Amino acid sequence: MDTVINGETEVYGIFGYPVKHSKSPLFQNAAFSYLGINAVYLPFSVKPEDLKNAVEGIRALSIKGVNITVPHKEEVLKLVNEISEEVKYIGASNTIKNIDGYLIAYNTDAYGFIQGLKELVENISGKKVLVIGAGGASRAVVYGLIKEGAEKIYISNRTLKRAEDIIRDFSKLSRFTEKILEPLPLSQIEELLCNVDIIVNTTSVGLRDEDRPLFDYSKIEKRHIVVDIIYRKTPLLKAAEEKGCLWQDGLPMLLYQGARSFEIWTGKKAPINIMKKALSD
């Protein structure tokens, strides 16, 4: 059913800069419409210097909830009333719920990544994973993998200190964290590939075809499961496909993180198939 905007329509949205490319309005509005919820989801282009005013606008305008995307995921934490358990470790938020002006920050990226990965491999427990990158997305991926019982997670990054920072920040998550997590120089990826089951790229490398490869992709083996959180078939994923690997781009993660946000805001089960169809149309 189509939403009729009136005096009772609730407003949701996404804060980012830039944000016009966002696919979130497509599937969030489809979900509201399908469930007959009188709500609309809008993109809000928010410059970094305007973030504080924009967050105050959530309260002032009674916006019910927003997603947060780059470059605001870390900075927004200074402006909310409460942060959820996963945000304490990940250090970034992509979802805010407004309860009468009281703003709670969540991170649904970890959930989204794991739900997407489970389309390829049902049981992550005991798996050995290579995570390339050490930014906010990497932190969400690592958090989800630890929670799912991954046996070993190698964090590889150009600046190794950032990988070491993740290990330090996650040390209180589990008493086994320091045994599970290990920093890895990019130069050592190829010699480690024989030891891992899953390869995850959380960097922006591959967004452009002229980007230099992260490592020698010919070393990928058919048994590897390869995920790139970029929303396209990157050179990494093309190489994985050629090898016959199970592979996935970033769209499943986008879908499931958005579905979890929807459930946090509305208290209703997200219509995944409707959201998936809207995203693929």
From TrEMBL:
InterPro entries: Aminoacid_DH-like_N_sf, NAD(P)-bd_dom_sf, SDH_C, Shikimate_DH, Shikimate_DH-bd_N, Shikimate_DH_fam, Shikm_DH/Glu-tRNA_Rdtase. Involved in the biosynthesis of the chorismate, which leads to the biosynthesis of aromatic amino acids. Catalyzes the reversible NADPH linked reduction of 3-dehydroshikimate (DHSA) to yield shikimate (SA). NADP(+) binds at E85, G133, A134, G135, G136, A137, N157, R158, T159, L160, K161, R162, I229, G250. One of its GO terms (molecular function) is NADP binding. Belongs to the shikimate dehydrogenase family. This is Shikimate dehydrogenase (NADP(+)). It comes from Persephonella marina (strain DSM 14350 / EX-H1). Residues 250-279 form the SDH C-terminal domain.
